[in-house]
Design brief:
heterodimer; A: about 180 residues; alpha+beta; Ctag/Cox11 (Pfam 04442); 2 domains; 5-stranded mixed sheet; 1 helix; about 20% helix; B: about 525 residues; mainly alpha; Cytochrome C Oxidase, Chain A; 15 helices; about 65% helix
């Protein structure tokens, strides 16, 4: 067959595409995350922590309702409660919200909280200077702890948004996760 | 060394002929027999589903097993029946259609077939395991799929095997078509079936590795502590849906494009007219393939996407209706004022055009974001994808088998029985799936073994259609076996109006064909 080397060449190129596309499947994970971070979709902006610079421009005549939602995954023998159900806040000003977390078991357990902000278009404008999320939290047997989040609603928050929900879910920390 | 044997058209005999075969016709036959077997395995599962849904309440199987049936039925039909049947046809027909002696990579061809039985042994063995077969749906969404018991790694590795097999098949097809065409067979002179398979092969190579990656992530999430989709570790379960459907939507066209190719061969043959708009058919196929990579999120409108995302995916989805419409109108224009006769392949082809279009229309409805919120996860979706896959892809495959069976066996099939098989299939499949549109619009959710009594009548009608369809396929097996064993001798050009190189070789096609490239005349290249 005269075409033997051509066949080899075509097959190798196609095999290379296969390998590339396998890698692309994995690359989709960071790509989606970058995409969500840029656009603020999926509440992913909630991850970043800003430094607190009290701005002088506080929207004096605007009030936004921030609601707090707390959940515990079924795997974790904890109880979590927001000390306040909601807060009326002024954009541009920092506030503090406290959650009470209790370990109901007789042994030490490590958990980790994952935040989420909705509606998604608000997540770009919801900024935290201090948060207990995304780090391992150790609760000793029967221990109760207050956990604090400091946040600011950006003054550029679209007018249409009047209510923002900040939701936390505590999961049992996976072994080997920091 | 073996020149002499080849000259006498000698085929090796016994088990070794099939196990070690590198002959494209033998491997094509193996693929087709395997696909037909899996069609009945998956069909038996569908019968369990329809029996359970015959009446409201729980009758025959427990919900977990019902869910397993739904899940494994889908995997078997997609990866075991429709895809291998398409690859089998490609193996048999592409070398004959382009004047090549065999596939470009005959040994890999053998391997890509023989991986399939092992993949399905893994998948079907899970039915007998503690904890049962996978029951989280063929889409394998986490976190539900991660609750699968011992069957989980078997599911993942089965998907890997089936994926590897398909990718090897795809590489082989492209390598054959790009390098082994007879002199004069330029790309734009190739039969449309070959074109659709080249484009399908590119879809396979670009999308199946992504599925392999996604299921590997599931595997490491469950056993190796990664958190791709696990919210506890900062992952996101919705991410899986995005990655899965990046594969999943092209997969839909992997199942449908070869069917388009078949229909584009059959209709001109029985309308005795050249295919209308050959070039536009090629470009329409290519644009459908390209668009299929940017519409994936229309499978997941309800996960909570932002408005702009929903709009983008809605418009992109609507756009696919344009090239698909080009194809349907081209088929109609081919038939327009043709001297049509209605042998079994043509009957299946015409039914395909009508019924696939119905499935296409319900697809357009599902693609509209606002209404999809009502239809999502209802029987409307089930009706839609069975119209495009059963009365679409499977009818086209049936059409192809009747069209080329005399070329394969050298005998004519029983035309009268073929027509009976067609009418039984066409009527029963509509009795089976049409009422499911109404069930879905009325709000009956899919993947649940019990239902509200308001859905009872339509479900009973649907089940009766299901049993009738299942039974009529036994007639198909009888027709094929009868044709393989003997009958009226088939002419070389089996169908008076059939065009293409495959009709210039004797019937049955000898074991080796086109060992020296054929000299192509003008009429050999007609469509």
């Amino acid at each position: 067959m005269a075409a033997k080397t051509d066949i080899k060449k075509t097959s190798l190129v196609l095999a290379a595409i296969t390998v590339l596309m396998f890698g692309f499947g994995y690359a989709l994970v960071p790509l989606y995350n970058v995409f969500c971070e840029i656009t603020g979709l999926n509440g992913n902006k909630a991850i970043s922590v800003v430094s607190e610079t009290e701005s002088s421009e506080i929207a004096q005549d605007r009030w936004v309702d921030v609601q707090f939602d707390s959940n515990v995954n079924g795997d974790l023998p904890w109880r979590m409660k927001a000390k306040q159900i909601n807060m009326k806040v002024q954009p541009g000003k920092f506030y503090e919200a406290t959650f009470t977390v209790e370990n109901m078991k007789n042994n030490d357990v490590v958990g980790q909280a994952i935040p989420s902000v909705s509606p998604s278009q608000a997540s770009l404008y919801f900024k935290k200077s201090e948060c207990f999320c995304f780090v391992n939290q150790l609760l000793k047997a029967k221990e109760t702890k207050d956990m604090v989040v400091r946040f600011e609603v950006d003054k550029d928050l679209p007018e249409a948004v009047e209510v923002i929900t900040l939701s936390y879910t505590f999961f049992r920390a996976k072994a080997g996760n920091s | 060394m073996s020149t002499l044997a080849h000259e006498h058209d000698h085929a090796p005999s016994g088990l070794k002929r099939w196990l070690c075969s590198t002959n494209h016709k033998d491997i094509g036959t193996l693929y087709l027999i395997f696909a037909l077997t899996m069609f009945f395995v998956g069909g038996a599962m569908a019968m369990v589903i329809r029996a359970e849904l015959f009446e409201p309440g729980l009758q025959y199987v427990d919900p977990q097993f019902y869910n397993s049936m739904v899940t494994v039925h889908a995997l078997v039909m997609i990866f075991g029946a429709v895809m291998p049947a398409g690859v089998g046809l490609a193996n048999w027909m592409i070398p004959l259609m382009i004047g090549a002696p065999d596939m470009a990579l005959p040994r890999m061809n053998n391997m890509s077939f023989w991986i399939l039985p092992f993949g399905f042994a893994l998948l079907l063995s899970t039915l007998f395991m503690d904890g049962g077969a996978p029951a989280g749906g063929w889409t394998m969404y986490p976190p539900l799929v991660l609750q699968t018991g011992d069957a989980f790694p078997f599911l993942i590795f089965a998907v890997h095997f089936l994926g590897i097999s398909s990718i090897m098949g795809a590489i082989n097809i492209i390598a054959t078509v790009f390098n082994m065409r007879a002199p004069g067979m330029t790309l734009m002179k190739m039969p449309l079936f070959v074109w659709t398979w080249v484009i399908t092969s590119f879809l396979l190579i670009a999308s199946l590795p992504v599925l392999a990656g996604a299921v590997t992530m599931l595997l490491t999430d469950k056993y190796f502590g990664t958190s791709f989709f696990d919210a506890a570790g900062g992952g996101d379960p919705v991410m899986f849906q995005h990655i899965f459907w990046f594969f999943g939507h092209p997969e839909v066209y992997i199942l449908a494009l070869p069917a388009f190719g078949i229909i584009s061969q059959v209709i001109p043959a029985f309308a005795r007219k050249p295919l209308f708009g050959y070039a536009s058919m090629v470009y329409a196929t290519a644009s459908i393939a390209l668009l299929s990579f940017v519409v994936w999120a229309h499978h997941m409108f309800t996960v909570g996407m932002p408005l702009k995302g929903e709009l983008f995916f809605m418009y992109a989805t609507m756009l696919i209706a344009v090239p698909t419409g080009v194809k349907v109108f081209n088929w109609m224009a081919t038939m327009w004022r043709g001297a049509m006769t209605f042998e079994t392949p043509m009957l299946f082809a015409i039914a395909f055009v009508i019924l696939f279009t119905i499935g296409g229309f319900s697809g357009v409805m599902l693609g509209m974001t606002p209404v999809d919120f009502q239809y999502h996860d209802t029987y409307f979706v089930v009706a839609h994808f069975h119209y495009v896959l059963l009365t679409g892809a499977v009818f086209a495959l049936m059409s192809a088998v009747y069209y080329w069976l005399p070329k394969w066996t050298g005998y004519m099939y029983d035309e009268k029985l073929g027509k009976i098989h067609f009418w039984l299939s066409a009527i029963s499949s509509n009795v089976l799936f049409f009422p499911q549109h109404f069930l879905g619009l009325a709000g009956m959710p899919r993947r649940i073994p019990d239902y509200n009594i308001q859905f009872a009548d339509f479900n009973m009608i649907s089940s009766i259609g299901g049993f009738a369809y299942g039974l009529s396929q036994l007639l198909f097996v009888y027709i094929v076996i009868k044709c393989a064993l003997g009958g009226k001798k088939a002419k070389d050009r089996v169908w008076e109006g059939a065009k293409g190189l495959e009709w210039y070789v004797p019937s049955p096609a000898p074991h080796h064909t086109f060992e020296t490239p054929p000299k192509l005349t003008k009429e050999m290249l007609e469509h």
